[in-house]
Design a protein that fits this description.
Blueprint (H helix, E strand, L loop, with lengths): L1 H15 L7 H24 L1 H11 L40 E5 L3 H17 L5 E5 L10 H6 L7 E4 L9 E4 L1 H12 L12 H30 L5 H23 L19 H15 L5 H4 L6 H11 L2 H8 L18 H12 L1
Parallel strand pairs: 1-2
Antiparallel strand pairs: 1-3, 3-4
Helix pairs in contact: 1-2, 2-3, 4-6, 4-9, 4-12, 7-8, 7-9, 8-11, 9-11
C-alpha cells in the first residue's frame, strides 16, 4: 500500500544520507541492505498491512554506532549545521553610531530583543536608541569572525553595548534572556519591564523568562523542526514534541486563566496585571505558534483548546513595540513588514510613509 512505499522511500533516503558509511564496502552493504529491505516491504505490502508494520519496525530501526562521526545533513538547515564552533570567515561586523549595536534576525529569539528595545525607546527616548544589523543564519553569517567575537555560540541575537563610548571595547551580551535582563538593568530606570530587586514580582518575572528559555527549544528545535523542516516526517519525534508543546500550552493556560491559583495567575499578563519582559520573552514563540510560523500547526495542536493563551497572544500582539520589533532585522515576506536595518525610530516613520505613497 501507500504506507509501504512511503516506508521504502524513507528507508532509502536514510541510507543515502547515512553518516555512518566509513568505507565503499560498507556503503555497498548499506545499499544492498536497503534493497533487501525494500523487497521485504513490498512483499509485506502484498501480504497485508499488519506484516508490513512489523517489518517496517524491524528493518527501519536505527542502530547507533559505537562512535558517532559527522556528515552532511539534509533538510532546510542541514547545510549550516556543524559539530565544531568558531569562525568560518574573517568578515567583521558593521558598526553604527549608537551605544547599542544589535546583530540579529527576526526569528522568535531575535524579536524578543527588538520588541523590548522598542518598548524602551517608546518609554525613555533617545537614551535607548540602537542600531540593528541583519544576520542571515541561512547564509551562515553567524559564523563570521566578527559575529563569533560577539557570540562564541554563533546564535542570534548578539548585542554589543558601547557603554563607555564607541572608541572603547564594548560589553558583549549573548543569549536572548541575558540581553533582556541587561537592557532592563541599564535602561529600564522605572522598572517598568523588570520589577525592582525586593519586589516579589521580580522573581516571578525572571522565573517566566527562564521558563521560556528552557521550554521554547522543545517548541522550536523539537516540534518545529520535525513537524516543518525535517527532510522526512517521522511519527515518534513529532508525537513526542507535540505532547510536550501541548503540556507547555496547558501550563500557560492554567496560569493565565487563574486555574493555577498563584498570586500572579489570572492574567491578563504572565505577572498578573503588569506587562513585563516575561511577556516579551514568551510572545514571539507562543504567539508565533498561534500565528502559524509552522503551517498546519494551529490545527494539528488544536490551539483552540487554550482560550486564555489566545487572549494573551492578541493582547501582547497589539502593542506598538511588538509590531515594530517583529519588523526589525526582517528581510523576507511582504516588503511593508521588513526593516532589515534599523538606526532610529524615524525608520518606521519612513516605512509608514512609503506604505501610504504606494
Amino acid at each position: 500500500g501507500t504506507s509501504t512505499f512511503g516506508s521504502i522511500a524513507a528507508f532509502r533516503s536514510s541510507h543515502h544520507h547515512n553518516p555512518m558509511s566509513p568505507s565503499p564496502q560498507s556503503t555497498a552493504f548499506s545499499y544492498a541492505s536497503a534493497s533487501v529491505a525494500a523487497a521485504a516491504l513490498l512483499a509485506a505490502g502484498a501480504a497485508g498491512a499488519g506484516l508490513a508494520v512489523v517489518l517496517q519496525r524491524t528493518l527501519l530501526k536505527y542502530k547507533p554506532p559505537k562512535v558517532w562521526r559527522p556528515a552532511q545533513l539534509s533538510g532546510k538547515f542541514g547545510g549550516i549545521n556543524s559539530h565544531t564552533a568558531g569562525p568560518r570567515s574573517e568578515a567583521q561586523l558593521p558598526k553604527g553610531i549608537r551605544a547599542l549595536q544589535l546583530h540579529s534576525m527576526a526569528t522568535p529569539n531575535g524579536v524578543k530583543v527588538t520588541a523590548l528595545l522598542e518598548e524602551l525607546v517608546i518609554r525613555y527616548g533617545k537614551v535607548a536608541e540602537y542600531d540593528a544589523y541583519s544576520v542571515s543564519i541561512l547564509k551562515g553569517e553567524q559564523f563570521t569572525a566578527g559575529f563569533v567575537a560577539a557570540n562564541p555560540n554563533s546564535k542570534i541575537p548578539a548585542l554589543l553595548h558601547y557603554k563607555d563610548g564607541l572608541s572603547k571595547p564594548p560589553i558583549r551580551v549573548f543569549e536572548s534572556a541575558a540581553i533582556l535582563v541587561h537592557l532592563c538593568e541599564h535602561f529600564d530606570t522605572d522598572n517598568a519591564f523588570l520589577p525592582a530587586i525586593g519586589d516579589p514580582l521580580r522573581a516571578e518575572c525572571l522565573s517566566w523568562i527562564f521558563w521560556v528559555q528552557g521550554s521554547a527549544p522543545y517548541l522550536g528545535g523539537g516540534f518545529g523542526h520535525f513537524f516543518a523542516y525535517a527532510p522526512t516526517k517521522q511519527q515518534y519525534p513529532i508525537d513526542r514534541f507535540a505532547m510536550e508543546v501541548k503540556r507547555q500550552l496547558d501550563v500557560l493556560e492554567r496560569h493565565l486563566s487563574g486555574a493555577e491559583g498563584s498570586a500572579s495567575s489570572g492574567g491578563p499578563y504572565l505577572c498578573g496585571e503588569k506587562y513585563t519582559a516575561a511577556d516579551i520573552c514568551a510572545f514571539p514563540w507562543y504567539g508565533g505558534l498561534f500565528a502559524g510560523i509552522y503551517p498546519g500547526a494551529p490545527e494539528f495542536l488544536a490551539l483552540e483548546e487554550y482560550p486564555s493563551v489566545a487572549k494573551w497572544v492578541k493582547l501582547v500582539g497589539e502593542r506598538k513595540a511588538m509590531k515594530r520589533g517583529k519588523m526589525v532585522n526582517k528581510f523576507w515576506g511582504p516588503e511593508e513588514e521588513q526593516l532589515p536595518e534599523r538606526h532610529g525610530v524615524d525608520d518606521f516613520e519612513k516605512l509608514e510613509g512609503e506604505k501610504k505613497s504606494a
